[in-house]
Amino acid sequence: MHSDRDLTDAILKHSSRRGFLERVGGAVIALAGAKTIASAVLPADADAYVYTNFCGHTYTTGNCPAPTGLPRIDRNGYPLRASDGVPVDDLGRPINAEGQPVDANGHVLTDADGVPLPPAPRTKVCETAGEDYGVTLRLDGSWYRCCGGTVRRIRDCCGVTNVRINGDAALPGYCYPGRHVFCVTYYETTMPC
Amino acid sequence: MLTPLIAVGALTALVAGIAGAWSPCGFSMVDTIGTALGDARRGVMIFATATFTIGAVAGGVATFGGLALLGGLLGHDAAGLRDALAGALALAAALADWRGWRIAPQIRRQVPERWRWIMPLPLACGLYGLLLGLGFTTFVLSFAVWALAGISFAADSAVFGVVIGAAFGAGRALPVLWIAPRLGSERGDLALDRLALEPRLWLGLRRLDAIGLSACAALLAGSGALAAGANFATDPSAYGGSLTWQDVGGRGWLHTHSKTMELPGRLPALGGGDLAYLSGQEIIVAPGVTSSSPRTILAPASATVDALAVSAHWLVVRDTTASGIENLYALSLRHPAKRRYLVGSATPGAISRPTVEGSTVVWSYSNARYSGIYAENLSTGARAVLRLATANVQYANPALDEGRLLYERTDRCSQELLLGVLSISTARRDRVLLSLPSTVLRDPGYQPGYIQNYNSASLCKNRPTGPGGTTTLGSTALSGATVYVSESPVGDVARTTIVTIGLGAGASRSARASTRASTAASAPASDCAPRVSMIEGRRAIAYCGPATVAIQVGALTYRFKDGLCDASKTVGALEISAGTLVRGATGNAGLAFVSLVIARSPSESEAFVADSGDRQLFGDTVIAPSGTLLREGTFTSLYGASFSGSWNCHGVIHAGP
Q: Is residue B608 helix, strand or coil?
């Protein structure tokens, strides 16, 4: 669908009749009883969507459970703290590259004896949500939206399930055929928009 | 509790009081009491001597006790700094008194002479005594008085202030008691003459004061470290009623039924009746805890030992090499050459402090892929997984006692202290002894400005969003009916303390009752009634309810839960009973129990008894409450055993008769 929309847009942009269509296109097509065609061929307003819980997430599927709240993940699906993108373990503690919990300055946290605090498991948010809820889940498709000046990748956590995390019927979303969205995560790119 | 500081301070105060006899007031008092009424009224003179003594002691207690209370209002923060300042003041005063320097600042005032004429002699002398006992209303005859005032303020101990004040008052009264009754006789007059004509005696007393103040300064310097250790400690280890712990940044300590002593080493551990600790590069193992013939085992030269555990036959050591490799291994105490390697990690901190009972050693191991608690039979090498999680959960800080397993389970929402057995199959039935909110920063699961819905999976039921709890659970110990766990303030592990939790019969109630944070927030309804049963052939009352009491005695904090708050309309006081009372049983049959009565002033508040484990923390004594009376507040002991504490009815107070 994405490529179809791009193709349609490209044709319109290169057409000498573009200005005319833009002025009257929607009305004309609607009069013709083809409103769905109008929505398919005209560019979507990037700010017209109503997002739920976090920017970029449409519809009402709930967040995947994440260590610090919002289900922000890294490119591999591991949890990040939403506010600053710092890697966190499953307990929500900021960690270093070795998985050791660190303070705000990146220093390894220690106990009263000066011994570093023990690491904790750090698992993929989507897969772990599946283990918690008894469903085999993985990240399938994505959609990208402009959020806060950068491109955000909305990643659906999908499985063979008809129910989503908040108990309602599951939607196809960006999942592969035959699978439905159980919960949602997102990945913040560095691309300005 | 008579500490060396109190004892030395009291002697110094006594001498400082005696030195006060060389003041105009001191001489006046001897003469007033000794000669005012002559022999004809000797009975009245004896009475006046008694009132003078009482007044002097009361005045001293008022001044120095008041200063101690005033110092206590500043709280326990910067105790080390205050001790250091008090020590410096004591040293400076000692130098001045030793050199016999002129007293400055001097208070050039005398007691009102007219009282002698307008009041009955006993009343006048009582008031004179009061003024002299106050110390700073008339001439000061030694720098020790100023120094003792400073030490009282810094000591943050009402007991210290009261004892010092009483000793000072007694010192002021002693010369009067010694000379006044004999005045008029040759020996009495001679004694007064010597007093008046012999300033070297006064200077000699000041030198005694100087020695006492120097000793106080030394004790303050030592107690500064001691106080830090006493308040900030970690790594508890318990066995058979004895307890060891590690001062944060200091040495290890041993507490037995009969004494508390500093150990000549670090990382103490108890087990199987043995005590082990690290002294330099040697691991000392003392059979029988206080054996005079301990064994010495050389620690590896190429690694740093950072944790020990000991049983009757095994010593378990955790060390870290210079390259950061952490190892855990066991040494047979029968055959020290027999060494069993247990686990290693390239990530320091991954292996917990070990615990060993008999031949069973238990430790936790955590990395980014899993976290678990493991056991190994050191005799057979058989290994078992006791608790394991591959996601979301960290297990840590296990402790063994009599086949029971104490450990911590932490997830993104909470930290729990649990008690179970050495089997993974029964983990779901483990008792939650303590539950605290997680300490991590959590967002609300939505971004501001967007619809908030369907994000329940991002929330924690036990805590709000934001910074989270302020306490991190740490090392643990278990012995009989007492649980020990260290608690570290977030971002300040140097202020780690050891908290004690009694495993009373009522402690098996729901976890909610032991969850301090959640009970405070939710104020659960009291749907229970005290239960009467027989324990060890004696009548026992198991109280229940959300009320909690915490009592701080020296280094340890004892927490009591399952408490009932009962407010009496007629008396206007609140009675708090928490835990299980076994009437007439020695040591309350090892069960935790505390009973308090809190009343608004001028009524007296009282702490009847507190038992934890096999130890009675204190008997019937008077306490001074403060805070939001009556539903919650804090208190300190006024007499006898020194302790402080707090109570909280968590919103449930029954109306009593």
A: strand
B179 backbone dihedrals φ, ψ, rounded to 5°: -105, -40
User: Residue B38's pLDDT is what?
Assistant: 57
- Fold annotation for B232-444+470-489: Methylamine Dehydrogenase; Chain H (2.130.10)
Query: What whole-number distance in Å separates Cα of residue B60 and Cα of residue B135?
Result: 7
Judging by DSSP bridges, how do beta strands B644-648 and B547-553 pair with one another?
Answer: antiparallel
Q: Return the domain boundaries, chain B.
A: 4-228, 232-444+470-489, 531-656
> Which of A83, A121, A128 has its CB closest to that of B369?
A121
Domain ranges of chain A: 2-41, 72-87+122-192
**ipTM of the prediction:** 0.75
Query: Omega before A137 cis (within 30°)?
Result: no
Contact residues on chain B for A64, CB-CB shorter than 8 A: 457
Contact A69 B442 (CB under 8 A): yes
Q: What is the mean pLDDT of chain B?
A: 83
The three-class DSSP label of residue B385 is strand
Q: Give chain A positions within 8 Å (CB) of B350.
A: 118-119
**pLDDT, position B329:** 96
Higher pLDDT, B366 or B513: B366
Tokens, residue B633: 């507040």
Separation in Å, CA of B445 to nearest CA in chain A: 4
pTM assigned to the model: 0.57
Q: Where are the alpha helices (DSSP H) in B100-198?
A: 115-118, 121-134, 143-155, 158-179, 186-197
Residue A53 is nearest to which of B352, B394, B446, comparing CB atoms?
A: B446
B195 and B179 Cβ atoms separated by less than 8 Å: yes
Own/partner pairs, B419-422, CB within 8 angstroms, 24+ separation? B419/B478, B419/B483, B419/B503, B422/B360, B422/B362, B422/B375, B422/B384, B422/B386
pLDDT band with cut points at 50, 70 and 90 for residue B81: low
Contact B392 A68 (CB under 8 A): no
Cβ contact B239:B479 at 8 Å: yes
Radius of gyration of chain A (CA): 21
- pLDDT band at B528; cut points 50, 70, 90: low
